[in-house]
Every structure is written in C-alpha cells, then in structure tokens.
Amino acid sequence: MMIPKLRILSLTCLVLAECASTDGTSPEEQKYRKVEAAASQCAEEVKNQTIELTAEGQSANTRWTTVEYVVPEQHTRTVEYRTSSAVDNGQPGSAWQACMKNKHALVPELKL
Hints:
With 112 residues, this protein is of the alpha+beta class. The chain is built from 3 helices and 3 strands.
C-alpha cells in the first residue's frame, strides 16, 4: 500500500517541478523577454560609448526612444532603442542594431 502512495507522491513532485521550471511563460513571451533585455543592454552600451566619446571632446547627437515589437494577433509592445551620431558612423541606429545582432536579438518582430 505504501508503494502506490510513494509513486503518486513522486509523480506529483515531478509534475510540480516541471511546471515551476517553465515559469508558465509561452515561447513567444520568452523570446520577447530576451529581445527586451538585449535592447535595454544595447541602449545602455550606446549611451556609455557616447558618454566616453563626448568626454574626449567629440560632439554627438543622441536620441533615446522605443521601437515596436510586433507579433501578429498579439498586442504591440516596445523595446528601448538609442541612436548616437558619435557611434553610428552616419547610419542612425547602426551601433544599437550591431549590438542586437551580436546578442542574436535582431529579430523580424522589431519594426525598425
């Protein structure tokens, strides 16, 4: 009689552990969170690089904004986006985009 109870208890623990490890988020939500985190990090990197260059006397125009992250049949979200003339080499947003690409987060859902 103890063995069936032990099996049920073991299965219950296994199921609960599996549910807890997935955090209940969909693959789409996990992807968005990854892209959002990378976008924030890249915006911060562009800002820090700009600060360093302006401290050395280089002038810069910088813009902080957001860019849309669109998934069909879901609501539109945004992620951080930063441009800086000091680091973009004449192509606004190129430093941020290169950073996102390096983090494997430059995805088609971003509407640049």
